[in-house]
Description:
Elements: E1 3-4, H1 13-25, E2 38-43, H2 49-60, E3 64-69, E4 77-78, E5 91-92, H3 93-102, E6 106-110, H4 118-122, H5 125-133, E7 138-140, H6 148-160, E8 176-181, H7 191-202, E9 206-210, H8 219-222, E10 226-227, H9 231-235, E11 240-244, H10 274-278, E12 284-286, H11 299-303, H12 309-328
Parallel strand pairs: 1-7, 2-3, 2-6, 4-5, 6-7, 8-9, 8-11, 9-10, 11-12
The structure holds N-acetyl-L-norvaline and phosphoric acid mono(formamide)ester.
Phosphoric acid mono(formamide)ester is lined by residues 47-50, 142, 150, 288-290.
Amino acid sequence: MKSFLNVEDLGDLKEALREAAEIKADRYKYNTLGKNKTLLMVFFNNSLRTRLSTQKAAMNLGMNVIVLDVNAGAWKLETERGVIMDGDKSEHLLEAIPVMGSYCDVIGIRSFAGLTNRDYDYAETVYHQFEQYSGKPVFAMETATVHPLQAFADLITIEENSPLALRRGAGGEAVKVVLTWAPHPRALPQAVPNSFAQWMNAADVDFVITHPEGYELDPKFVAGARVEYDQRKAFEGADFIYAKNWSCPGVTNPGDYGKILHDYHKMMHWTVDAEHMSWTNNARFMHCLPVRRGMIVTDDVIEAPTSLVIPEAANREISATVVLKRILQG
Length: 330
Ligand code: AN0
Ligand code: CP
């Protein structure tokens, strides 16, 4: 594997899940695979889980790790071509990338959507520049439009908590997975819901998305997924509730890209509370974290035994180990 951005990059999903179970049973099984190989993790944005779990995954495989926080000590980087660099940016990404590539064997990139230029974000400009100019395999640690390490960990978690989930063909009943929008005071990217939709569509689950009108996700990621604007109807019979906020994807109205469409105070009826969960089939609660309590979810729901947020985060080490292993195997 040379690049990890979309679900297709992993090939057969059942095989990937089998590998994840193998790694989970013995996470050091391939601890010499990465000997004398160096992972460089480049962060343009903050992170807790991705930073720690990906570093741990690399260590499981015997790799060395270097971390660069671009906004904490590196030169400020220009990312656009054709500009006269007379501002605060001292270096261009197009020199920085091959330099970074010269010190490592694999590069992980965290670079969120700017949420101002839809075309620039949805073209995955920064990620593809790393692909093109680093000379090394690259993988997404949440880029402008996707967060595949998260979605892979989410699928592992769903599989672990519903043995029949992916075995509809073998007589099991598909579990119902609901992705619900929830309120948030700041504009957030669409990367997490985009990838989650992409992965749920590829898995054999009954997948429903619910959100207020105007927050329609890009068809490139949701494909034919069912959208139910009535949150209560969507929640009925759900086995998994996956909550996440996202800003306007600008699908129906490109001018609204990256905006919060309504004052969040008026959207608090979308917050996942005990009453919402009572509409479900005793559903498990999921969120990628970090989560704002009282906005996305109430304390009692996230603290309940039905909440999977901690095992979900723990599975980030597993998804990252599988992905790095695949990259090291070439
Ligand atoms: C980011 C997002 O919503 O994409 C990262 C989530 C993993 N969240 C925030 O910036 C709060
Ligand atoms: N879920 C996730 O990617 O968390 P971080 O932003 O803390 O890495």
